[in-house]
Write a structure and sequence with these properties.
By secondary structure, this protein is mainly alpha-helical. Helix content is 62%, strand content 0%. The radius of gyration is 19 Å and the shape is elongated.
């Protein structure tokens, strides 16, 4: 089982525990969001089953566009914050959050931890979890 530890010493990006975990799961939801954004384009309504329905007409295209726009906005927040991580630490931090991988040995754990804390804090702020 993966442990989600938030650094508490020398961390100016400390979050409430619940917010920290919510943010990690928002980040881990990245690949599902990408798949959902693509699936919205290809989705079609279910075939009619012969049962009567209400008389209201809804704009299916507009509702799909709105749903896709919301999904793409979440993806953009994650992408923008990921790019803010220095390139040499980006993959190590991303893999640590997504897959629980250990940090690469090219830099100290503290350095990776500092940038991870900053990344998670900024994502939480952009998702209005703070």
């Amino acid at each position: 089982m993966m442990r989600d530890y938030q650094r508490s010493k020398n961390n100016k990006y400390i979050l409430p525990t619940a917010v920290y975990h919510q943010t990690l799961w928002q980040i881990r939801d990245y690949y599902r969001l990408k798949a959902e954004a693509d699936a919205i384009l290809e989705a079609s309504p279910a075939p009619p089953d012969g049962q009567p329905r209400g008389t209201d007409t809804s704009d299916m295209v507009a509702s799909k566009a709105e749903r896709r726009e919301n999904t793409l906005a979440k993806i953009k927040i994650l992408d923008d914050n990921k790019i803010a991580i220095p390139e040499e630490y980006r993959e190590g931090i991303w893999n640590n959050i997504q897959f629980g991988s250990a940090y690469p040995l090219d830099a100290d754990r503290t350095t990776y931890g500092r940038y991870k804390s900053m990344f998670v804090f900024n994502v939480a702020k952009d998702f209005y979890l703070l």
